Amino acid sequence: NDMTKTVIEGHFxxxxxxxxxxxxxxxxxxxxxxxxxxxxxxxxxxxxxxxxTSELRERNRELAxxxxxxxxxxxxxxxxxxxxxLGTLMGGIAHEMNNPLMGLMLxxxxxxxxxxxxxxxxxxxxxxxxxxxxxxxxxxxxxxLGDVAEEAEPVSVNHxxxxxxNLVAADFRHAGININLAVPDSIPDASxxxxxxxxxxLN
Length: 203
What we know:
Layout: H1 2-8, H2 22-114, H3 118-145, E1 153-155, H4 157-174, E2 190-192, H5 194-202
Antiparallel strand pairs: 1-2
Helix pairs in contact: 2-3, 3-4, 4-5
């Protein structure tokens, strides 16, 4: 009874000693065989549980990795959408500003051709140059921001960087800041939206 209770409690290291009559020895041997089979079954179950637990842990790691990738993809999509909206807004502003600017440049050109006094003529010439500079800036913005959501294509990083520097160089010069640009020729092309890369460099 004590050995049976021990086995029921999950302890399989008990062993009945076959002594006495043939019937008693037979019962002891049957009991020992039953204990051995239970022990083997218990060991197999533990092995399967361990294996299943390991598989579940691996699946959990894979699932966690997939979730991280999904969150990363979602974040990139959000950033791309923000970039697209910003590019559309800036491109629209540049286009709308270009029309009145062309009218202003015509008026300046007309006024400069009609004015005789040197001082006023010089002021109009300076204003015309500033208007030309603004026109160049707007044209550059329109070129780069015309379609910020365009598909990725091989883009020269050097060309974009130089274009951005040219776009902002005048403002830096007015602030007393000189830009010394050194772009290595070894930079490979990037597979990206040209407008998107322009905004990245500009920011």
